[in-house]
Amino acid sequence: MSRKLIFYTFGNLLICLAGTMLFPVGVAIYYQVAADEPQTDLVTFILSAVLTVIVGFILRFSMRTRQQELGIREGFAVVALGWVTVAFFGAFPYMFAGVFKTDGRLPLTEFSFCYFESLAGFTTTGATVLTEIEHLSHAMLFWRSFSHWLGGMGIVVLAVAILPMLGVGGMQLFRAEAPGPQTDRLTPRIAQTAKLLWGVYLLLSIVETVLLQLGGMSLFDALCHTFGTMATGGFSTKNLSIAHYDSVYIDLVISLFMFLAGTNFALHYRALHGNVKAYLQDTEFKFYCIVIAVSITLISWNTVRFQVDGQVPYESMWVSLRYATFQVMSIITTTGYGTADFEKWPALSQFILVTLMFYGGCAGSTGGGMKQIRFLLLIKQSRAEIKRILFPHAVLPIRVNDRVIPAEVMTNVLGFFFFFIGIFAIVTCVMATLGLDLVSAAGCTIATMGNIGPGLGSVGPTDNYAHIPTAGKFILSFCMLLGRLELYTVLILFSPNFWKR
Question: What is the pLDDT of residues 197-255, one digit of tens each?
Fold first, then answer.
């Protein structure tokens, strides 16, 4: 394994990251003039960008190597450790803002707070340690949401798209970065594939921004909420999240685009090229729609018919349908936006939402969780095992989209499920030993592993993660990384064989 090539690629990533910091610099300049915001924000982001680009160039030029093609092990190392590195440098604006004490608007005085907030942005988890969101400057609000948008499709894929010097070796990056058990390659060249995916991502982002503006949002708020929606991240510019707007139109627009963000982007690409039937021909997409429809129906019925603390959450089926639809879309796509406090819903509704936290979005989407395709394959495997008991000699292949799923893929899925549940149980126990009650411990674990954000208990939809002990913040940060990179990409780094030459 070429360590020089890994650090050389890190340098390229940091140069890209420094370039993205120029966007909040522009926002700081604009609002310094338009809203008389202090110059501290401008200094914060310029200093962050300068330090990041300096380190990036040092790594780029000091680690030059003749080897230009990333192998499998280099690819996994770059992706897993690259996210840790990007989140570290992405925390600079939070750290400097805390040092400069910008009117007390960003009280992040500990590195654990800053890193947690940064990683929650880039991994599109949306878990926050902040309480008074609306007290933040426009530049800082923009950076929080923009980090979502970058992480949504993957800052590593962005680097592959604009750094052709990676050549064919970039496929190792894409395989390690792309969510789901299989990577759907759209074109022979990986750089071209990454550009196409980003093109679809950008187009949908532009459309949503325009639609949100038509609903009464300012351009700034529309952009920030689009970043959070398309990346399935969930950072909002408002303390009450989407509930702040109390608008049926805005709820519907964001619900629609959360649904699209949780769908395989390869299907969007084919639909934009005239093959709209691709959606109906995809087994995972149909399963995704069925899970959503059943969940919305059950929660709508449950929140109208059953009382909590002596009263029914919603008197009208239409009102119940509105909030149930939004929260189901928010949780299953792992976005984490909120229009209601679902901890005040009946137990069945809460149970359904917690189940959806495990499900997540489709493979090839920006959503987190275990992915719909894995649950679909597990269900098909279970049915096949029942049939095999009745017909021991029958050949029962597992099929998806009329293709037989290889045995090694099923083994991968079963292993993933075992690791996910096992890590969930272990981390829940650890968080409980740190002082959290069992509901909060389990809630924060699945909320971070699933890249959702809000959980249950003390980390519910109206709470935050500020009270989590420092050790707990780093453990949950590791969970966010595991969830974003789908376990294996991170766990493989702990194998001694991985580092052997």
Answer: 888 999 999 999 999 999 999 999 999 999 999 999 999 999 999 999 999 999 999 99
HSE-CB at 309 with a 13 A cutoff on CA atoms is: 5
Is the confidence at residue 81, as pLDDT, over 70? yes
Tokens of 66: 């003749």
d(CA 167, CA 171): 8
Tell me the C-alpha to C-alpha distance, in Å, between residue 271 and each of 47, 265, 275. 43, 10, 5
Q: For 436-492, what is each residue's pLDDT tens digit?
A: 999 999 999 999 999 999 999 999 998 999 999 999 999 999 999 999 988 888 898
According to DSSP H, which parts of 362-487 are helical? 372-390, 407-433, 438-449, 470-484
Write phi, then psi, for 17 (nearest 5 degrees): -60, -45
CA distance 108 to 117: 9
Residues 332 and 316: beta-carbon distance below 8 Å: no
Q: If we measure between CA atoms, which residue out of 449, 474, 465 comes closest to residue 123? A: 449
How does DSSP classify residue 486? T
**Residues of the chain with pLDDT > 90: what percent?**
62
How is residue 291 written in tokens?
């899970």
Alpha carbon separation from 156 to 54, 83, 172, 173, 185 (Å, rounded): 19, 8, 11, 7, 16
The three-point CA angle 72-63-94 to 5° equals 85
Bridge partners, 311 (sequence order): 308
Q: Which residues pair with 308 in a beta bridge?
A: 311
> Where do we find the tokens 């000091």?
62
Position of tokens 């309480």? 131
SS (H, E, C) 289-303: HHHHHHHHHHHHHHH
